[in-house]
Amino acid sequence: MYTQALNERETVGPGEPVADAAFQARIDAEERIEANDWMPEAYRRTLIRQISQHAHSEIVGMLPEGNWITRAPSLRRKAALLAKVQDEGGHGLYLYAAAETLGVTREALVEQLLDGRAKYSSIFNYPTSSWADIGAIGWLVDGAAIMNQIPLCHCSYGPYARAMVRVCKEESFHQRQGFEIMLTLSRGSPAQRAMAQDALDRWWWPSLMMFGPPDGESQHSDRSMQWKIKRFTNDALRQKFVDATVPQARVLGLAIPDPALRFDAATQHWVHGPIDWEEFRQVLAGNGPCNRERLAARRRAHQAGAWVREAALAHAAKQQPAARAA
Ligand code: FAQ
Prior knowledge:
The chain is an all-alpha fold. The protein has helices at 16-28, 41-60, 62-66, 75-100, 106-114, 132-149, 158-186, 190-209, 221-226, 234-252, 277-287, 291-304, 306-325; strands at residues 262-264, 269-271. α4 (75-100) runs antiparallel to α7. It is globular, with a radius of gyration of 21 Å.
């Protein structure tokens, strides 16, 4: 999809601040930065970090839902879930391709995930213990993902911004299928309703944590906002999500598990109670309920797929002389 060939970078040396200022002027003028353009090393590193973490999240994010494909309650639900999980795989591949335009290889990024050096979204370290969790993931997790990703369609780096357009369209469909599962359950039997409420109880707080640490503790936000990689701060997006989601919970007739939640008439915002940031830190440190299981599953899949990679390379090598001759 994208070229991996980078032009020789301009050597700026002592003139670097001048180049930095010119670069920032392009950003301020809302120009898109493309793979072959000069960019400060810190901008490149920030993008590689964020895009690769995003790609890993999509790939690891296939696991909690994949757990329910064989147990979906009907053929219609199974087909929709299968398609959704395949979409997440596709998003991961787009994102690895976008990261590769910055001069890293997908192999290196995957290695960082498998050896535990790379982060992926905290949310995928929680278990999916009932069918209602599939509804809650679509409604809340995809809902949070869209809130975060729509602004990324306007990010300053062209390949990332363009990849996000299609991803967001698909996430929007995912969010609706999740909400529809929740609606069906919440209008079902008392047991189904209880299952939906239980899923909301377990996924609500981790969904709020997806937006990252509070602004005061976010290490990268200031820089990323200046470079227009991020268009909103973590807290601003979290607030948008809460404001959009509370009325949806009311349509479902489900209770948000936050006794402190209240509508502030002065600001016209829903104000949520305190988030347990210690839980977030533990999940990031590898101590969430499913961190070890998730990484073990990815490592197994990578090993089991080794023969496919070898076969594809062997096939490509065989094709090369034929292609040259043609
Ligand atoms: N989990 O300074 P900040 C999806 C890390 S896709 C883990 O605020 P930043 C689709 C952060 O990396 C979900 N780590 O960082 C789907 C940094 O660590 P580092 C993924 C987190 O980058 C749905 C440190 O904390 N979406 O759900 C988290 O400015 C359903 C300090 O944080 C994206 O990746 C977290 N929640 O802002 C799939 C979107 N939050 O690198 C399947 C793109 C923060 O210094 C099923 N990413 N950290 O070691 C972003 O927008 C940003 O990277 C943020 C973090 C907002 C996530």
